[in-house]
Amino acid sequence: MRILLLGSGGREHAFAWKLTQSPLCESLFIAPGNPGTAKCGTNLPFSVTDFDAIKQTCIDKKIDLVIVGPEEPLVKGVTDFIISNPALRNIDVIGPGKNGAQLEGSKAFAKAFMMRHNIPTAAYKEFTLENYQEGVSYLKNHALPIVMKADGLAAGKGVVICENHLEAIAEFELMIQRAKFGEAGKRVVIEQFLQGVEMSVFVLMDGKNYVILPEAKDYKRIGEGDTGPNTGGMGAVSPVPFADKVLMKKIEEKVIKPTVDGLQKEGLEYRGFIFFGFMIVKDEPYMIEYNCRMGDPETEVVIPRLKNDLVELFAAVATQQLDKIKIETDPRTACTVVAVSGGYPGEYEKGHIINGLDDINPTDSMLFHMGTTEEKGKIVTSGGRVFCITSYGKSVFDAVEISKDELRKVSFTEMNYRTDIGYEFP
Ligand code: AMP
Ligand code: GLY
Predict the structure, then answer these.
(1) 207 vs 93, 277, 406, CA distance in Å?
(2) Domain boundaries, position 163
(3) 374 - beta bridge partners?
(4) pLDDT per residue over 386-410, tens digit each?
(5) How many separate domains does the chain show?
(6) Does the residue 391 lie in any domain?
(7) Residue at 132 is within a domain
(8) Mind listing the pLDDT tens digit for each residue in 4-63?
């Protein structure tokens, strides 16, 4: 099979690493890719939202399968663009069409979908400029803290948790009156704060059937002990020690099945990943969010634990035969620790030379590039999250220690990472 993978992060490097292990992978192209994916296939220098370049590449390289890594092209309709184009008729796409991608692209759509299908989630109300004053009154009487979510994609920044009413009203005004998160963010979901522990579950769906992949937990805050501002994710672990059979069964019955059935009932053709973000409250799963893609850095622990041939899995999505697939999981724990640029998630510098990447011991660890690029033959930083090291271990503690030992071999100016990933699972 000739494959085009869209994206340039650690998620795509992990996909590329796994795809090349398949005897079914004839050629792999990654756009735009990174220096890590360049070792697995051929990087092509165009953006994930350059639909014309995607089309031309599909034709020139005789692509059979397109795998869409990030959400932006999905929400913008790349899947519909490919499957409706007569010149691209025989190409299969991993990733939902624009309608299905609304699960991530619109918080208001996702909440209404959960309500329609009785999926447990936080109570909420939706506001726009039209009912702005009603929203202010609603906020004044809302229990604290208050969770506010801008409707559209906001690069992971659209969720604000306010500790007092004044702050909440000010934030509400910024979102609706001043379009703080853009035009789509002028629609705001206000929801009940859920106190619990977070975890994520990933499903691959073929439009009819689904398989559940290994679960994971990521660490979003920049600081040790889960403090400071949110990031894209500073590390991840899989499996999640508290996700026992009883909890996973509840998740499947109360959330996954109603979601899959709901998509079908509503005529939303969905072939791709569904990322379920949960808050577990007193052993009960509540949905916080859907994403229409895999997580990053969760992919960097989920994919290394997946024993199945990934190309075979994607081929089963294309032929709607996922019911014939049994997911095989590596029993070892996988943990990843992300190295970030100094200053991230605020302002940070780029272009620092990264030393030591070749010294990582491949016995139990693997390196995934995230925000790196090649300049004059050297690998330099080009993003906030720069790379991550995933290691296998007997326990979370063991795997994280191995990753940290490997991370100490690597350096760049102002490199930062969390030393306490998986701290609650000693
Ligand atoms: P999201 O972008 O929807 O993943 O939200 C970002 C983060 O905000 C989540 O990972 C949670 O930590 C937090 N969050 C979102 N919704 C809630 C909620 N209803 N209660 C508590 N925390 C929440
Ligand atoms: N790590 C969270 C995400 O990919 O959305």
Answers:
(1) 12, 21, 41
(2) 123-192
(3) 379
(4) 999 999 999 999 999 999 999 999 9
(5) 2
(6) no
(7) yes
(8) 999 999 999 999 999 999 999 999 999 999 999 999 999 999 999 999 999 999 999 999
